[in-house]
């Protein structure tokens, strides 16, 4: 989920979930998820194979390259996500990113709170923004940082502890920048569109945010979610999952299914802004995170967002008589995002023609 600034005056900050757990506090009512339309919460839903895409093949013009593109098109049209392998990052580097995340969250609270977000800012260490009394809170703490454009980074919010944190994040951002181009080009090619069609979303001024998530051990995984159901407001999202602890579930054919962890893979999911550009051919993935009473889980999500002034609309090549334009043109899509999310609605639905 990619955030926007909340409107002034209605929000407050809540305590880190980790703190509630350490204090052994009784679980507050506001964490209990009551939307039963969604079916029960359970970590034991069937785990399904998510399509696996070899990124190395996407740039090849050989017949295997063509068939990988076809696999990509099919994965994004039916699932809205895939497990990316052969992405050019060593497993040991992915482990380093995971380690830096774990070490940060393992720091004493006072140390982490040096990077706390303020009411006015979405960046920094903290958790759910409280807009209304009736809101259900997510069982998660996070460190949210803008990583691109580089000159907009707020380095005072970038942990200096663990020592490797900043360099690791810098390198990870660099690598994801390269992957972004490969994936966005391939998405266009798979639909026989101009390269620029999705690539424009990462043109100058595009934003990349990385969110380090901690899902602490939860006493009531049967009624509490780590993240409520949502689709991301991004163009695409890269998710590095915990190597050992599962928790991500995706909605497929109206049923929740668990996403297995492939340690060396990155999960790439499509966000609403690509669904819009593809005129609904690609699906923005609806997903949620369940909690666990025995083990905490970490993940690292990186969101790519077009420059807020860029107009997003269905690509011309995908609008025709058989397939009329599904969505209105929009700027700064993420500004629609937060309120809808907290109310359990999908912002993209407000743009349907
Ligand atoms: C997100 C998200 C999934 C996860 O941050 O938007 O969906 O497994 N994260 O943490
Ligand atoms: Ni998400």
From TrEMBL:
<feature type="domain" description="Fe2OG dioxygenase">
    <location>
        <begin position="202"/>
        <end position="306"/>
    </location>
</feature>
<dbReference type="GO" id="GO:0016491">
    <property type="term" value="F:oxidoreductase activity"/>
</dbReference>
<dbReference type="GO" id="GO:0046872">
    <property type="term" value="F:metal ion binding"/>
</dbReference>
<dbReference type="InterPro" id="IPR050295">
    <property type="entry name" value="Plant_2OG-oxidoreductases"/>
</dbReference>
<dbReference type="InterPro" id="IPR026992">
    <property type="entry name" value="DIOX_N"/>
</dbReference>
<keyword id="KW-0408">Iron</keyword>
<protein>
    <recommendedName>
        <fullName>Fe2OG dioxygenase domain-containing protein</fullName>
    </recommendedName>
</protein>
<dbReference type="InterPro" id="IPR027443">
    <property type="entry name" value="IPNS-like_sf"/>
</dbReference>
<comment type="similarity">
    <text>Belongs to the iron/ascorbate-dependent oxidoreductase family.</text>
</comment>
<dbReference type="Pfam" id="PF03171">
    <property type="entry name" value="2OG-FeII_Oxy"/>
</dbReference>
<dbReference type="Pfam" id="PF14226">
    <property type="entry name" value="DIOX_N"/>
</dbReference>
<dbReference type="InterPro" id="IPR044861">
    <property type="entry name" value="IPNS-like_FE2OG_OXY"/>
</dbReference>
<dbReference type="InterPro" id="IPR005123">
    <property type="entry name" value="Oxoglu/Fe-dep_dioxygenase_dom"/>
</dbReference>
<keyword id="KW-0479">Metal-binding</keyword>
<keyword id="KW-0560">Oxidoreductase</keyword>
């Amino acid at each position: 989920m990619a955030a926007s600034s909340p409107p002034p005056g209605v929000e407050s900050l809540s305590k880190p979930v980790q703190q509630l757990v350490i204090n052994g506090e009784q679980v507050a009512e506001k964490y209990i998820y009551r939307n039963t339309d969604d079916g029960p919460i359970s970590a034991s839903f069937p785990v399904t194979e998510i399509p696996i895409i070899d990124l190395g093949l996407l740039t090849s013009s050989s017949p295997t390259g063509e068939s990988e593109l076809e696999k990509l098109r099919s994965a994004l049209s039916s699932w809205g996500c895939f497990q990316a392998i052969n992405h050019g990052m060593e497993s040991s580097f992915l482990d380093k990113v995971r380690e830096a995340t774990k070490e940060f969250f393992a720091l004493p609270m006072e140390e982490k709170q040096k990077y706390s977000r303020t009411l006015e800012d979405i960046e920094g260490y903290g958790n759910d923004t409280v807009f209304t009394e009736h809101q259900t809170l997510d069982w998660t703490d996070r460190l949210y940082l803008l990583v691109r454009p580089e000159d907009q980074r707020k380095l005072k919010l970038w942990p200096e502890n663990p020592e490797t944190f900043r360099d690791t994040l810098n390198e990870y951002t660099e690598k994801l920048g390269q992957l972004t181009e490969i994936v966005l080009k391939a998405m266009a090619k798979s639909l026989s569109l101009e390269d620029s069609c999705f690539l424009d979303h990462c043109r100058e001024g595009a934003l990349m945010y990385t969110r380090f998530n901690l899902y602490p051990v939860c006493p009531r995984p049967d009624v509490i979610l780590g993240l409520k159901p949502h689709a991301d407001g991004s163009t695409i999202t890269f998710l590095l999952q915990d190597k050992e602890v599962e928790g991500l579930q995706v909605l497929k054919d109206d049923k929740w299914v668990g996403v297995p962890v492939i340690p060396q893979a990155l999960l790439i999911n499509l966000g609403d802004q690509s669904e819009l550009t593809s005129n609904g051919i690609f699906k923005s993935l609806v997903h949620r995170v369940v909690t666990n009473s025995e083990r905490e889980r970490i993940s690292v999500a990186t969101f790519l967002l077009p420059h807020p002034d860029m107009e997003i609309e269905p690509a011309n090549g995908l609008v025709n008589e058989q397939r009329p334009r599904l969505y209105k043109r929009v700027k700064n899509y993420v500004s629609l995002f937060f309120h809808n999310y907290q109310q359990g609605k999908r912002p993209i639905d407000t743009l349907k023609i």
